[in-house]
Hints:
Number of domains: 2
Largest sheet: 8 strands, parallel, barrel
Strand order of the largest sheet: 2-3-7-8-9-11-12-13
Radius of gyration: 29 Å
Distance between the termini: 46 Å
Shape: globular
Oligomer: single chain
Amino acid sequence: MTFGLTSKDPLLRGSAHRLVALWKPLLVWHAVSGALLVLALSPLLSWGLRQELLRGETPVVANIDLFSWVLSPRGFLHLCSLIAAGLMTSVVRFTGIFLLLKAKIDGHIISVSLILRRTIRLLPRLFTICLVLALAGLLWTLLLGAGIFGIYQTLLREYDINYYLSHRPQAFYYAIAFLIAWFLICLVPSLLLLGRLLIVLPANLSGDYRLLPAIREAWHLPRKRTWRLLRLMAVLIIVAWLFQFMVNILAIAIARMTLQIALRLIPSVRVVLMVAGGLIILNRLFVFLFGFVVFNFAAILLVTFYYEETSLHREASDEPVLQVLRRGLRHVMIRGLRPIVLVPLLLAFSLISLGISAAALSRLPDLKPVQISAHRAGPPPAPENTLSALDAAISTGADFTEIDVQLTADGRVVVVHDADLMRVANAPLVVTRSLYEDMRALVQEPDDGSPPDRRRVATLEEFLDAGAGKIRPMIELKYYGFDPRLAEAVAGILAGHPSRDDAVLMSLDQPAVKQLKTLMPDLPVGYLLSVGVGELREMPGDFLAVSRQTANAAFLRRTARQGRVVHVWTVNRKQDMIDLIVLGVDGLITDDPALAVQVRDELQRMTSVERLLLRWIVLALPESEPETARRTE
């Protein structure tokens, strides 16, 4: 099969020479439109989330509740509107590129201010286009999700999902095969449809057609031409992705080598930090320029295809392509490499790097006291949520043992994570429908050499008694269908127990968090957040327990300003531990509490500058998997 994609392809050549010829106004438009969109859309999106989306008694929609909210008419419509507002960033930028290129083709004077005024007048039309795109995207996502849910209900419903993820029986591989097939069934026709409708946007913006007529005309274009556009776009995306991937690998290697050389040759921490700041600036500059080139080239390719490869508009006349391309590139190279230009750029780069480094040094915070929690009672190889795991957690010096509790059919509070015992004991007993005696007869896996009684399903009372005065309990109430009796039972067990004042409580369910705070207002109650939207300041509970992916620098800055305590799960790599502790988390939930305690204690003995420098070095080192086995949350 041949794609017809060579350096002699007139469509690619024409798009390339136009990108070179228009790079200055395109760069100005990229910067101006980006700044204006951030200023305009950020308040709009915040207002939408706060005033429209989540108005009422529940300021946050998170975890499993997020799916129910999206499927509701109100949630679906508001989410569609917000996605449309988010799409405006790309569509507005494309509109400016289209108007600039149209002015070039028509021989008119190119003016960014004029383009801006025309784009503002087109905003209602652009939002309509974005709304249609958002609606189509959401419907496609719901269709994909319905298929995934159907596969899950058919093949993976018998036992808890964690059993399938850890043991991977034959049904698991059948489900993976069906998931891949369903994804391709949804994706391939959608991409073909998108390829046939790509020229709707330039057709509509040119004023030649309204939206629906533009869709109709695009659909009736010769299939051979639309296939050509789709192949061009696909190859452009693939080549751009491969190029960025290779450049990222090269950049990481250069950064590691540069930092290692700097550490060996230059004893000054400030100089090393200046080098690190310079590398960050170069990386951000590359990301900006690469995104600028790819987006603009794809947009120009689409507009050029519309004007030159379809009969929907007259053909544009071109200048000799290679002459313009060579002249433009030579002009840029000669002007950019002159000493009068190059020297000030290097000087400015050095000053900016020094300024960033100095600012970073001046804002170095003191290290917070970080609490270490042993995930699911204690580290492997002890079976999770067992007294054996609790013994292992105590021996590591962890501050908390994080356990999951559920209510059995006979009203006992047991320490179990999954909905059933298939994964941990090879027994299909569902916790909420089983008697405690039947569960107590089982010995959990794996065998870590501890007595069998330390590996059986234990009650919350046994955990509190075994850990009293040795380690604090962090109790997560686990629901597979909300049951208010669980919180009442936990409160009853804690009442009068010596470990009560040491306990902290948390849950994924907002009603449980509110109920716990009502039953035990003097104890810290946390909201375990996997994914969600809403007003962070109004999240329920006294602290947050969030995933490693959620706990980025911006999130931690916001929570710190609001006085929120943040625990992060499940942090098993040394690099992540160092990064999060330096960023200022309050607690780490980990499968390797011994390593976390060691990292925390070593960081506490360092100066602020040493900690920051260590963080930069760690981020530049190759990633390594922890020796401790991972557990999914």
